Fold these 2 entries.
Entry 1:
Amino acid sequence: STRIVLASRPHGAPVEENFRLETAQLPPVGRGQVLLRIIYLSLDPYMRGRMSTAESYAEPMEIDDVMVGGTVAQVLASRYPGVDAGDYVLSYSGWQTHAVEDGARVRKLDARRAPLSTALGVLGMPGFTAYAGLLAIGRPVAGETVVVAAASGPVGSVVGQIAKLQGARAIGIAGGPDKCDYVRGRLGFDEAVDHRSPEFAEQLAYVVPDGIDVYFENVGGPVTDTVMPLLNTYARVPVCGLVSQYNLPGRPDGPDRLPAFMNYVLTKSLSVRGFIQSEFVDDWYPGFLMDMSDWVQSKRVRYREDIVDGVENAPAAFMGLLEGRNFGKLVVRVAEE
Ligand code: NDP
C-alpha cells in the first residue's frame, strides 16, 4: 500500500514536512476481514485537529500513523459474510491506496443509486452534519433568516439549501466572488456575501434587514464577530466548526472577545449549542438518507466536488482546504472506479 503518514505535528498551518509518503506491506486478510482498493479519500477540516495533541473530542493521531479519513473503496477479497469481492463500500481507511479492514466496519454502497464519491459529501458525513445541525438545533421556520459561512463547501451548501426547503431565507458567506456567484446562482441562496471584501460588515447587515434567526457556525473568528450584533433575540447558534481557528498555534490574537460574546448570549437570550454529528446518528440518520437521496435526485439539493488526483497530492490539497483554496467538497481520487 502507498500511504501518507503523520511525520511530525504542525505548529500553525501544516507544511509538507508534517507528512511522509511511504509504501508498506499489508497484513494478510484474516477471518472476518476484507481487502480494499481505495478509490476516493475525503479531506475534511477536522483532520487538522487530529494532527495536534490539543484537547479535542477525538483522540490525536500518533506520529507515523496513517493519516485518518473517510474512504470509498472496492473489495478485492473478503473473508466477511455478506460482503463480496467487487462490492463498493464506505470505510474509514485513511490516506492510502489499499487497506485491510474488519468487515463489520465497512458499509456497502450502491453505485447505481448515486455517484460513489457522494458518500463522502452530500450523502455522507458533511451532508448529515448540515441536516442534523440545522434541523435538530437551528430549527428554522418559514420566513426566518439563516446565515452560514463556508457556504460553498459540503456542510454550508447543504445548510442553506435545506433552509430554503424549510421556507427560510438563506444567506451564505464565502471567500471570493466566484464562490459567492455559485452560492447565489447555482445553489439558490437568497444572498451571498464575500468575507474577504473590505465592505463585508456593511454588506452582511444590508442583506439581513430583519436580523439573523439562525447562525450556523462553521468558521469563528472575524466572521463571527461581524455576525453577532445582527443576531435576533432567541436566535439559535448551532456551533458546528471553527475552521478559521484550526491553524492558530495558540490562543487567537487580539483582545479577549468572550465577555462581549457572553453579553450577546445574555441580552439576546441566545441558545448556543455545540455538536458533533455522531451524536445525532441514531435519531436522524435514516431520515437523512431518505430525504437527502430524494433531494439530490430531484435536484432540490445540488452539490459540487473538488477532485484532486493521486494520494501523493493529498497533503497539498489538505493545506489548501484550511485556507479556502478548495471550491466544493474536497475529494482525492486515489484510483479509477
Ligand atoms: P469546506 O470544504 O467548506 O472547507 C472549509 C472552508 O472554510 C474553506 O473552503 C473556506 O471557504 C472556509 N474558511 C477557511 N478558513 C476561513 C477563515 N479564516 N474565515 C472564514 N472562512 C474560512 O469544509 P466543510 O464543509 O467540510 O466543513 C465546514 C465546517 O464544519 C468546518 O468548520 C468543519 O470543521 C465543520 N464540521 C463539523 C462537524 C461536526 O460534527 N461538528 C462535522 C463536519 C464538519 P471560503 O473560501 O468560502 O471562506
Entry 2:
Amino acid sequence: KVYRTHSQHNTKVRVGDVVFGEEPVYIFGPCAVEDEQQMDTVANVMSQKGLKIIRGGAYKPRTSPYDFQGLGVRGLEILKSVGEKYNLATISEVVDASQVEVAANYLDMFQVGARNMQNFQLLKAIGRTNKPVLLKRGLSATVDEFLHAAEYILNEGNPNVVLCERGIRTYERATRNTLDISSVPIIKRLSHLPIIVDITHSTGRKDIMQEIAKASIAVGSHGLMCEVHPNPPIALSDKNQQLNIDEFKSLYDVIC
Ligand code: PEP
Ligand code: MN
C-alpha cells in the first residue's frame, strides 16, 4: 500500500548507482532526445560532475500535434548508448501501455508524465514489471489522487515507485505551473515512497531555479529533476526553460 501503515520503514528505490530515499538524487538531461551529439554533450558534462542518472524524452506528450513528438525507439537507443558510454542510468517517459515491454530493454527507470498520471492501463502495465518508475503528479491532481495513482503500480506487484511533484495548474501565470512545495512534507507523512521535485516544469523559469532547488531540498525532497540542453534556443521542445551547460554547472555548484 502507498499510504503508510503503522511504523513502516521508508521505501528506497535503487536505480543503477543511485538510491532514491537516501541522499538527494539529481536527474538532469534534456527535455527530449534530439540526436547523438546533443545527448553525448550533456552526458559527458554530467559524468564529469559525478552524476549517475540521465533523462531524455523519446515519446513527448506535446500540447499541439504539430510540435515535435520525440524520436521514439530511436531516441531510446541513443539514450541507452550514452548511458552505457558514460555509466549513467537512464530514465525516459512512456505514454502508452503498449510501449512498456520494448522500452524496458532501453531504460533503467520508466517515467510516467503528468498527463498520464491516471492512465490506469499504463500504470498497471508498469506495475507488472519490476522496473523502477518515476510517477509525476497530474496537472490537476490532488495529493490523494496522486497517491492512489501510485497504488495502481504497487497493486500489480511493483514496489519501486518514486513520486515527483512537478507543479499543478492554478490561476497564477507568473510560473508555468504552481509548485506545491507543501506536498513534499505532506506526502512524506502520508506515504513511505520517496518523492522528488521537478524544478523545471513546475516553474518554467530559469531565473528562480536555484532558489526553488534549495527550497525543495530544504523541505525534504529526495531529489530534483531539471532539464539541461547544450543549446536551448534551438531545442525542439521546452527551449525557454532548459538550462545551458554553464547554467547547469552553476546550479550544480549551488546544490550538489
Ligand atoms: C517531462 O518531464 O518531460 C515532462 C513532460 O514533464 P511533465 O509530465 O511533468 O509535464
Ligand atoms: Mn520538458
